[in-house]
Write the structure tokens for this entry.
Amino acid sequence: MPVPDFSPGEVLTAAAMDSIGLWLISTTTVGTGVSTVSVNNVFSSNYTNYRIVWANINASTGGNLNFQFSNITGSSYLTGGSFTSYASATLTGFGPAAATTWLVGSLGTTGSFGSMDVLAPQTATTKAFVGASTSSGSQYSFNGFCTSTTQAVSFVLSVAGATLTGGTIRVYGYRN
Amino acid sequence: MSRPLIQIDNDGNAREMTDEELEAYETMLAGSPTVPSLD
């Protein structure tokens, strides 16, 4: 399938539209001083896998960013990865016990960025993610597994002991 | 002391958590991974 090359006023064909691999599902603007941000009704049978991108989110104090499917609240989440600060060559690995959230990055006070691919969140199977994040002082690389087979449609982001202000969260679906 | 805010839409609007939401929030954080943050 060729890459679509659209022109102003062109009638778009189904073949051209079907060749687009990534579709924007939602854009969320993070409010001021919020403890949790819910991104609702983004996972559906339309897509199997998703990309979530967050940009320029500020935390009131630095802390780890937690991800939870809204309707999967038990200790079903496994995360592993590594992190380092930009001023250090020391790479620290970690793999905590099963938890109530995935740990998907770290947020600083001056804007943080990250992205993650969430795999099969809406199917009645186990789920997974791969991702990375960066702040002004550190970088984190993560992946994780969710043992629950409950179908998810929404998710929540939060930081322990801190609030979030500003930035955006975008969710895209990978066309099958 | 005011309660934590929960964002309620995609535009950044928020309100204080209800009792049920606050309990769910605290349960979620209590069970979240305890990995040091460099930030």
